[in-house]
Amino acid sequence: MPTLDTLAERYEAAQDWPTYLAGTVKNHDLWTAIDRHVEIGADRVDAARAAALEGGVRYVLALSEDWCGDAVNILPWVARLIGMMPGVDIRILSRDANPDLMDAHLTGTSRSIPVVILYDEQFNELGWWGPRPSELQAFVLGTGLTLPKDERYREVRTWYARDKGQSILAEITALMQRAAPTA
Question: Which fold is adopted by the domain 4-131+166-179?
């Protein structure tokens, strides 16, 4: 695991959301299309903002790769939510270029992405989430494993389109609420 100084330096050197989005190569049209269609209600932003402030969340780091179908469906929602929260910043790092961070946030033994990590102002980790909403993860690890890869991917894309980011927003907001110190 990196030291706090190293983590802070890595975070500052990481890409912000507009830079990451513009630099996507694989699935670029899908990345930009999903980003264009993200709509978040003020009630959801207010809940997340309150949770972040109470929990001391100041930095959000996402581990991603532009080829990842889950990342393309999740990160635009997370980035927009965080972008609407004053005092909270999001950056994106490559999973493959940061194996130490990835290996500290495995789903079982898998390097599944995206991974969203919350930090306070001193870069103390407050919690993490990934690689996909829990309902979809249950499908992928259950019924989804019985389907051919192409069919499973179609089902996953359909799920994301139907959900319209609501599960992502709910789970990220809940993560922020869990990060809040208990009185």
Answer: Glutaredoxin (3.40.30)
